[in-house]
Amino acid sequence: MTEEKYLSLIHKKLSGALNAAEQIELTEWLGTNEANQKTLDDYQAIWKLTESVDTDFDIDIDQGFNKLQKRIKVEKISSKTTATDNAKVIPMRRKLMQLAAALTLLLGAGFLFNLYNSNTAETNWISVTTSENEKKSVTLSDGTIVSINQNSTFKYPASFDSKTRSVQLKGEAFFDVTKDASKQFIIETNKTLVSVLGTSFNVREYEEELLTEVMVKTGKVKLSPKNNKEAVLLTEFKKGVYFHSERKLKASTLDNLNDLAWQSGQVKFKSTALADVLTILSRQLDCNIQVENKQLLACKYTGNFTNLKLDQIANAIAISFGASNPTFNTTKKQYIIKGGSCLNK
Predict the structure, then answer these.
(1) What residues does each domain of the chain span?
(2) Domains 125-253 and 261-337 in one fold
(3) What is the pTM of this model?
């Protein structure tokens, strides 16, 4: 790929026009050497400066672009005559400064939008948003079924016309991806890229949680942070977590599929501490259950729930520990279990 193409990808990234396939391409290039990452850092600094450019003037966009192209060509020819070890990184840095000057003059006139938009086919994107306690399901043009959890936004094209099947997610969704060996399926979140050919898995990334989770039910899934060559390949019953602040990846084996309970309606517990049971029920099923006897939290619980109502779940737990029937606090919207003891010690 030419240097101008990489600058194009950098600009599309900063302007929010970079698709998932291009993000992978740019990430690989950034990881090649430190000079490439420095180029991105410099360009980001330039971008911030141009945000304050006064747009209240007339400019000949075609003439400005022609001048910019000539400067790039001249610099490219000139750089071939340089024989130093640093010659490999100097041309792009000089072009960067030339682009910066051009950006300062042309940004306000919509030049950059026209430049990159002219080379990108217009895509009709559809956005699906869910609110509190709301879930939705959509079927994509390739037959892939996506179940979207509460407080999430999922964006996808009306049809997949490119070499990849790229979608975007904020929040949580379960994907049952139709297999297509010729078109990779890529989910782009704010911090990561998740890529597959055909499989079923869950992706969760809520901004306030500061992590990205991927749980694989069937097939293989690749989880990779943006701007990082590191990646982890997950197979069925594997879980990958990317910690945003630490910028670390971690993979583990799942003992069960309780992390998918919000989509399947099923949870299974085997000798699980009640404290963990209540945490999972709260996160996956919005089932808020509290116990007055805090000693119960260390007790082990075994049981399965499938599409049960919240009061039924609370009653089942209370009976297991010999507690009284749960009461519902309408103000706090939670079930409260009183009394009881660890009968299974």
Answers:
(1) 3-117, 125-253, 261-337
(2) no
(3) 0.64
Residues 227, 44: contact at Cβ < 8 Å?
A: no
Q: For the segment 72-92, what is each residue's pLDDT rounded down to a tens digit? A: 455 444 444 444 444 444 455
Q: Which CATH architecture has domain 125-253?
A: Sandwich (2.60)
Q: At what angle do helices 90-106 and 61-79 cross, to 10 degrees?
A: 170
**Phi, psi dihedrals of residue 287, rounded to the nearest 5°:** -105, 100
What token pair was written down for 248? 């670390």
Whether domain 261-337 has CATH 3.55.50.30: the reply is: yes
Structure tokens that stand for 161 in this block: 């016309």
Q: What is the DSSP string of 138-195?
A: EE-TTS-EEEE-SS-EEEEESS--SSEEEEEEEEEEEEEPPP-TTSEEEEE-SSEEEE
* Phi/psi of residue 333, nearest 5 degrees: 55, 55
Q: Is residue 145 exposed (0-12), middle (13-18) or buried (19+ Cβ within 10 Å)?
A: middle
